[in-house]
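During the first year of the project, the team set up a workflow for recording each protein of interest as an amino acid sequence followed immediately by a discrete structure-token representation. This format lets reviewers and collaborators read both layers of information side by side without switching files. As required by the reporting guidelines, we include two representative entries from the current panel. The first entry is reproduced here exactly as it appears in our internal archive.
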Amino acid sequence: MKTTNTIFALLLILFGFSAQAQELKVNTSESSIAWLAKKIGGQHEGFISLKSGSFEIKNDKIVSGSFIIDMHSITCTDISNEEYNGKLIGHLNSDDFFSVDKYPTAQFVVTSATKFNNGKAKITGKLTIKDKTEEISFDITQNGNAYTATIPVDRSKFDVCYGSNSFFDNLGDKAIEDIFTLNLNLKVN
């Protein structure tokens, strides 16, 4: 009888722990966010830093999470000329694009997610850029303590209108695509 009670108590403990949410903190120094923006006849790419981030997993499902992006950290990796690189970064930081002095951070908050199946899940959440919030969804892959995702973002929904056919007519070969991509590589502790 004592053995049965002990086994029963162990099972309760194990099931109790599995039902508890596990908070995972993002290691910002080992994580990266690469960006890619395309225009007619070319593209630009670089990185932007995650300021902070964490999420909770319960029963193999992300149940909550919040991530802050440091908009001042944007870099460009495809222009080697220091002067032109600086001009592009200055333009991206300006009111034509992200108004970084006024809006120094962007944020993503998880609102729902599917359960991980073979290391993959779908996440939905609220993305805020320039004080505009939109719901987005994307697939995420988990491999050990690493989480990766490719996230398409429609900049026109966040009033990032420079060179956008959504706001201006007759841009011709000066048009910049509305969709830019964030390639997320998160490492958690």
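The second entry, processed by the same pipeline in the following quarter, appears below.
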Amino acid sequence: MIGFVFSFLLSFLAYLFLAASQGEILGLWSQSEIIAACIISLIVAIISSKVLFQKKQYRLLNPLRWLTFLIYLMGPFLVALVKANIDVAYRVITGKINPGIVKISPNLKSDAAITLLANSITLTPGTLSVDIDESNNDLYIHWINVTNLKPAIEDVCGNFPIWIRRIAE
């Protein structure tokens, strides 16, 4: 029930914020906008509360985890993104490309953590998350420079799993 209420309030406020930014500066909404916000928020809450709050895990609602996530984005992820862009540019110019698919075992337990890691890997140039082995949460990664068929996790995605464990587990 708390998930439903949280989803409803969050989507209701988001809708009103977006409606206010499109309309008057003072944020005054018409009756039709309030009714539309209620209807859309109700639909969003029905769908999202079943998906987002099915396991009763509210860890990701902790503001400290959001702060850690922002630090991760602005620090380690941004550094890895810049390095990967330079590496991919170098490989494209020189032609030193050795693509392949490798398997990594990040030892992450939650679905949110494995999803965050897979998305971080995919957003980093030169790597792409291809598949996941759901029995043990191993990831299959297409990598632009395979030097070892069984690479260390740090070779493929750096310290992403350490940060993601802090955020999502």
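For the second entry, the following points were noted during internal review. Residues 27 and 140 are 48 Å apart (CA to CA). The chain has a mean pLDDT of 85. Both points are flagged for discussion at the upcoming steering committee meeting.
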